[in-house]
Amino acid sequence: MQPVPGVFEGSANVVAVLVLLAEFGMLRQAVLRDQVRLYALQSLVVSALAAIVAAGRDVPELYALAGLSLALKVVIVPLVVTRLLRDTSEEIAGSGTLGVATSVLVSIVVAGFGFFAVGALGIHSRVLPTTALSLSIAVVLVAFVLMIVRRDVVSQAIGFFSLENGVSLASLVVAAGLPLILEVAFLFDLLVAVVVFGVLMRVHHGRTSSLSTSALTRLRG
Question: What does the record list as coiled-coil region(s) (predicted)?
Answer without folding.
Answer: none
